[in-house]
Amino acid sequence: MFKLLLLCLALLPAFAGAQEDSDWIEYRDAYRQMIWFEKYGKPKQFLQNHFRIRPRDKSVPTDGLRLTLNGKATHVALPLDALGRAVFPFSKAAYDDNAELAVNRKAGQLKSGAWVSIVTRPDGVYAAADLRTACDQLLAYLRYSGEAAGKSCAGVQFSYPKNDVSQVQFHAAGGAVTMLAPKEGPAFSGDAVTTFRVFVYRFAALPETGQVVTSSTPLAIAALLE
Asked: Hey, what's the signal peptide range on this chain (predicted)?
């Protein structure tokens, strides 16, 4: 299976719930995790960085999951996508205020932290060369952050909701079309939820030149590192 390791996994804060029905993370801790990607100076045009909330095991419900930024003068809802990712608000005011990121779940049920993945394209067309470069960029970033030692890029994975009917094809430069076979699995390595519809594009299994064409925008594209 692929392995997507993200910045500061070893430093992810343990959730400390001050209330019985909620959990929270210090904004300053999250800020320090997220700023690494912003300051990273090597090529990263194919990468994106989110703050992500994910369940520790599959018994934790994600329906209705909410993330809010709370401070003395701040109360902002941070929308989460289907994979628990939010656009992180870099705010000097929140930092100075020692604000908190609150989650409407009991303490210990969730993990949080920076989460780097490959950018999706609205037109659904990905040059094979770009996907290889994207995987290399992600691998280089993980090595910069002290992860993925000894790993190499084997491919990428496209993830969709379980009942989605989208298709993913490889169009070779010579015109041949190969349908990628879907399977059930996690959107990212190590996730507790393993019921997504995923398509794995292995670089070695198909020609070097061509395009991956998706019939709709995937929830995420993850790097396959082995």
From this structure: 1-18
